[in-house]
Design goal:
By secondary structure, the protein is mainly alpha-helical. It has one domain (1-27). It has two helices and no strands. The radius of gyration is 8 Å and the shape is flat. The model has no long low-confidence stretch (mean pLDDT 71).
Length: 27
Amino acid sequence: IIYFYQFIRISNLKEIKIEYIVLLLVY
């Protein structure tokens, strides 16, 4: 989970953030 969060911080794309947020909700 930490790696995913770091990747989100590195990438500023809103679409990717939304996708990762959905993945976090799934887990």
